[in-house]
Amino acid sequence: MEMKVKLVIFLCVFQFMAPVFGTGARLSGGTRRNLEVKKHLSQLNKPSLKSIKSPDGDIIDCVHISHQPAFDHPLLKNHTIQMRPNYHPEGLFTQSKTVGKKQNGPKPITQLWHMNGRCPEGTIPIRRTKKEDVLRASTIKDYGKKNQKSIPRPTSAAPEPDLISQNGHQHAIAYVQGDQYYGAKATINVWDPKIQQPNEFSLSQLWILGGSFASDLNSIEAGWQVSPDLYGDNNTRLFTYWTSDAYQATGCYNLLCSGFIQINNEIAMGASIYPISAFRGSQYDISILVWKDPKEGNWWMQFGNNYVLGYWPGFLFSYLSDSASMVEWGGEVVNSASDGQHTTTQMGSGHFPDEGFGKASYVRNMQIVDGSNNLRAPKDIGIFTEQSSCYNVQLGKTGEWGNYFYYGGPGRNPNCP
């Protein structure tokens, strides 16, 4: 009798608790994801010697240079850090700086976190990745990675880039192709374009490209971007990107995977740029140079005139282990057309090129690095945009700005429905 009573009680309790057990089973997927996120964060966020809280809410960790994410790469386990390039492109520090001294010319620029401190020598600043950053990605594996079809695709048969299925990515660019390129430089006007949807972004950058535009594309990219999905806000941020297989498995933004080796303790990849240009007001720009060290074969990046940031080891790439076959400069946005209409996400300043200085965004002093490691003006510059009524590009040339272009636009407008 007693046994029967116990059995009835057990069955009643089991029946009552079954939904709870079921919920527990369903939660285990979320628990597993949380554990995976935690593990991924521990890989990205290295132990720091000092942490700095930026006014925009970022935390910048000062990580010992030898503990940075690059050294998680199996081929970099015993790598000796190259603390300076063997060669700069000739003429790098003899450029005329008269533009910056003029009252209406571009002014020096820095990063927002500098207001609250600096990282000590022997460390590098790394923007701390938060749990919510990773959770915004569709999968943990996708976090910090670009969409596969995100750049204009040139074909050898066409004199201009031919866009095939660009998944809503739109561009306004200048480009050169048909030669061997060992680097590129440009000074890029900095704005804070408005983004319509969190899954859209707006950026301005240079691309150094090698290989075909199939599964073997090599790309090194650097510039500024506004990307709510990646960073969780609408701040304008310095970024880099690399891939050796057309964005399939390799590469990432900034230091969100192993690859780029940073040596500089003053500039943080992915950190907010400050100040920003104002319409009909002060204009600010950043200068970016990427070039291949002819001795070691590594691809170096310099920000402004004073900050050599670090390098991508040559072994990361196939085609770029030799040279690039194409260079592009300009803007890109994602047009998700979420409401069946063109996005209102702005490119550049959100104004068309013909509005000119102080209103439209510009890229000036475009240069390439040739086989003799010299900076020189590019030849036969082409321009391209998918929908000139939404975003456009306009080339120019002067003594002070060299080869330049204005670019951008508002997206949706009466002529771009």
Automatic annotation (TrEMBL):
Residues 1-22 form the signal peptide. Keywords: Signal. The keyword Lyase does not apply. It comes from the Eukaryota. The keyword Signal applies. Residues 163-417 form the Neprosin PEP catalytic domain. InterPro entries: Glutamic_endopeptidase, Neprosin, Neprosin_propep. Pfam families: Neprosin (PF03080), Neprosin_AP (PF14365). This is Neprosin PEP catalytic domain-containing protein.
